[in-house]
Amino acid sequence: MPAHVPNAGLSRRDLLKQTGGLAALAAFTAACGGNTGRPSSGGGGGGSKPNLSQWYHQYGEAGTQQAAMRYAKAYPDANVSIQWTPGDYDAKLASGLLSSKGPDVFEGHFNISMVKSNQVVPLDDIMADVKDDFQPGDLATNTLDGKIYGIRMIIDPQVIYYRKSLLDKAGIKPPETVDDLISAAKELTTNKVKGIFVGNDGGNVLGGPALYSSGGEFLTKDNKPGFGGARAAQAFDKLHELYASKSVLLGAPTDWWDPTAINQGLVAMQWIGMWAVPGMQKALGDDIGVIPFPKLDAQGKPSVYSGGWTQFVSAKSANVDAAKKYVKWLWIDKQDYQEDWSLSYGFHIPPRKSLAAKASKLQSGVAADTVKLTQDYSYTDNPAWTPKMGTAFTDLLTNVIKKGADPAAEITKAEKTVNDELSRLFG
Fold this sequence. Notes:
Blueprint: H1 12-19, H2 21-28, E1 51-57, H3 64-74, E2 79-85, H4 89-96, E3 105-108, H5 112-116, H6 124-127, H7 136-140, E4 143-144, E5 147-148, E6 151-162, H8 164-170, H9 178-188, E7 194-197, H10 207-213, H11 230-244, H12 260-263, E8 267-273, H13 277-284, E9 289-291, E10 304-313, H14 320-333, H15 335-343, H16 353-357, H17 365-377, E11 378-379, H18 387-401, H19 407-426
Parallel strand pairs: 1-2, 1-3, 7-8, 10-11
Antiparallel strand pairs: 3-10, 4-5, 6-8, 6-9, 6-10
Helix pairs in contact: 1-2, 9-11, 10-11, 18-19
């Protein structure tokens, strides 16, 4: 169940959002059909029950669609139909949210434009009794002006997993700085194995982690660009240095969110989400270690992008109250379903503190190590960061990483777009 990859702190699901990864995901996993109508396909019985449509993107893990339909069918108070969307989910969702024919309930990633465009409704009333049981960052990323607009469904940390045996054989310690990472990737590259896989685009997914490892951020607390300055430019230039080292795998069978590259021995290290841990363990056993994205230097700090998906209620729904009641039932009351969703189809951290504390599958080995790194070094999305800002940031990364453009000049261009967006949003 890959997750969200933000504007270049990319999680698998944000990658989907910002870099078209959903199209790649559709190629990776067999297309599953979805019921697009309001009548029930996942819930039984008609009568006077309201009809609700719930939209999901197409997850890569086997069993996820069946689980979503099972949950919907079990709901007693409405007829819930599931739309399972392969391909470009974000484009489909954007279109659907403009009309009354879109979803009543949907998953996505929150940003301020959703409120400004009246696409979502606040959920404070159904969150009131459990608010303290959610991680602060997962509340903050879905909160605007003191109102909570979404309920986090899963937490998807992204990190670097590596083959312990290959590093040991080369006498290499797990990298602690970006220079260590570049050096290790070079040393681990042979005529059969590349040092690292960070996506077929050469590493845009590392943009956010690299920025935060330098001490920067997408937006400051007072909503100004936080990715300028010499240290951010240095961090982006290091990503170009990694790409130019010829130690990065390109043209892999699937993209960074799928563990095929590391599982098949094509690379010694791979940037990927914790969702892939069960598959890696099946292929590689205990030969897996994990590190965060390394700190830029002694003044920096490691970083872990904490992505995930969030459940929303559409403001265009004809049954807002019924939709909110269903969301409360599924993502607040039904803890057995929440645990199943987080842990049965790949590994994800349950957003509820109480569920995460008793998640036995996450309390040992590399999964426990990933959870600890997430607790120590994670950052989440800023709701004021819009898709247009993300596109400008991705363009910056593409030009620097692959083309060797001057980071300072590219930062200046991206800052202009971001400032224009901020002026549009805040005046």
